Amino acid sequence: MKSHGKSGKQILSYASFCLGNLGHSAFYGVMSTYFVIFITSSMFSGMQASIAGKLIGLITGLMVVIRIAELVIDPILGNIVDNTKTKWGKFKPWILVGTLVSALLLLVLFTGIFDLAQKSWLLFAVLFILIYIGFDIFYSLSDVSYWGMVPALSEDSHARGIYTSLGAFSGTIGWNGLTIIVVPIVTSVTYMVTGKHEEGAAGWLAFAAVISALAIVCALIVCFGTKEKHNIIRNSAKQKTSLKQVFGAIFHNDQILWPSLAYLLYSLAYIITNGILFYMYKFVIGKPNEFWVVGVIATIIGFCISPSFPILNKYIPRKWLFVAGQTCMVLAYVLFIFGRNNVILMDLGLVLLNINFAQLVTVLTLTDAIEYGQLKNGQRNEAVVLAVRPMIDKFTGAVSNALVGYVAIAAGMTGTATAADMTAHDINTFNIIALYIPLILAVLSIIVFLTKVTLSEKKHAAVVEELKDKLAEGKIENDKEEPDASVTNEIVYAPADGELMNLSKVIDENNKPFPGKGFAIKPSRGRIYAPFNGKIKFTFVTKHAFEIVSDEGLQVVVHVGLGTVNLRGKGFETYYDDGQNVRKGDLLLGFDRDLALENGYQDTVIVFYTQPRKIVKTSEVETGKTVKHGEEVVSVEFREAIKNSEKTMGLQAE
Question: Left (φ > 0), alpha (ψ -120 to 50) or beta: where does 561 sit?
């Protein structure tokens, strides 16, 4: 057998998840920023100015109210996703259906609901509310499912960091790419339809159609290119959650609340500024044709920032990356305030504004908070927890929409107005909303993250290990007792060469005996072999442990070393794929004993049963005996119903 680094399947999964956010993020950019610009500039063109102004205020106000209502709705949608069971998993159906329906409804909105406002503004307002609510719900289902998939793709913080970074990388391209293509597409299509060099309704509809098509294609790529993983930790959690538990999962988990508040402050600042940048170039600086520079700079910086995050995070804790990014943001506002008339300073400000790790750090912290919450209350609400970040994005997007509408009306930045029409009062109004308030929010986000967020990468690794310990003890076992089940027998053979030990004699890194039922081996070589005929169900991404199920149905975890989770896979080499059937004595894993010992970790190989309540009895382990791999160690009698645990726990890959 050959060793496996990053397999073709893993690379495909990374690439598919990455491309998924290209269209997804571009679609969000259209709905959160450019739809409001369409409303203020083209949706009501040809109508009386006073009526158009009232409709703009009405629509932007309705959008804010709807988005605020979704602060309650989104966790409910997350719970719907969490409780979904299909042969395609719980995320993919909602990614695809959510994208298709929201794309269709967005196109209807970009037609001005087929110019209904020109005929009946009251009917237009009613239909707008219904369509926009439907659009937002289906977009939310797609968004929650996309980011909620991250912990289902891996349980390791570093691997999750790669997925999140790749998603953010393509998201940066999707979001900022809009600023490059929006004016050319909208003006060129408008010219072809009307013969006028302006941003007209026809051009905006074409722009929305292009981005909607991109979002659908990217959703299909995610659905076909990724695979949800099932493992003993995920499936040991409660499988169904009530609405009360949903909100409890959020409000009783401090490491959801504090990172969310820090991200809320950042997102408000960033979204407000980005929503008004177009107006800065058009009405304040008076150079709307140079707006494309914003997208070019942001895209270039995004190409550098997102891919560099996993590399930087190996040496710099997430907390300090968050602080560094927010500090750059603060400096950007200073340059925007004092250097607006200097092209070089403006461009430098745009660079600093986009040197930011806030979304990456927040998503990863919230993702790790899933296991943190599971340890605290036994619930694993993946989609619910990761619904918090898009919920914040939509809320801040709504605030941005409202402020853009307010600025557009209060500063006279509507219709055919130009920079020459702006007064000192208009510019001051713009500055307060677009620059001064965001500057204060950016500073507050730094304070919150530094003082309140404690879930570091190291602490998350400790949480995962504690969950493993509880699983070994049977404290989070999810199967019910079945007294009528028959009893079967399995022989477990030595997975390594070395000296046999009782599990109770193994002392972990916290000076506590290793919990649960099983045995251990003090190895003489860094080689791990299959302890019986069976199937590899799941491997920790850190490679220090894997789950194997015998042909008779006995489930065990082979755990290599104590504290070795902190090596994050360094020194480990696998010789199999998850889901592979293996024979007793097959070489499964190689590990560098010296590396583990040099880092202060133990090299003890532990075999424990993941369903200890199903164990009826075991033969005695001959402690102190030297064994070779493949020699019989223990005979285990267990309830035969354990063979069907793949169905009861949902361990099989969907």
Answer: left
How deeply is 368 buried, as exposed, middle or buried, from its count of CB atoms within 10 A (0-12, 13-18, 19+)? Answer: buried
Q: Where in the sequence numbering do the catalytic residues fall? A: 559
Q: What is the pLDDT of residue 628?
A: 94
Which amino acid does the sequence have at 438? P
Segment 541-572, tens digit of pLDDT = 678 888 899 988 898 999 998 888 778 778 89
CA distance 515 to 616: 17
Query: What CA–CA distances, in Å, run from 402 to 232, 284, 537?
Result: 46, 19, 50
How far apart (Å, rounded) are the C-alpha atoms in residues 154 and 588? Answer: 20
Q: Is 4 helix (H, G, I), strand (E, B) or coil?
A: strand
Output the furthest CA–CA distance in the chain (Å, rounded): 93
pLDDT digits (tens, 9 = 90+) for 107-120: 999 998 888 877 88
On the 0-12 / 13-18 / 19+ scale of CB atoms within 10 A, 197 is: exposed
Coil, strand or helix: which one is 634?
Answer: strand
Measured distance CA(316)–CA(230) in Å, rounded: 30
Cα 590 from Cα 567, distance rounded (Å) = 14
Which residue in the block uniquely carries the two structure tokens 């009946």? 120
What does the pLDDT look like over 427-459, one tens digit per residue? 888 888 888 989 999 999 999 999 999 888 778
Instruction: Give residue-wise pLDDT tens across range 249-296.
Output: 677 788 888 998 999 999 889 888 877 787 777 787 777 777 778 878
Q: Give the separation between CA 461 and CA 76, rounded to whole angstroms.
A: 29
Q: Which helix (H) or strand (E) holds 406?
A: helix 382-410
Contact between 305 and 351 under an 8 Å Cβ cutoff? The reply is no
* HEC profile of 316-359: CCHHHHHHHHHHHHHHHHHHHHHCCCCHHHHHHHHHHHHCCCHH
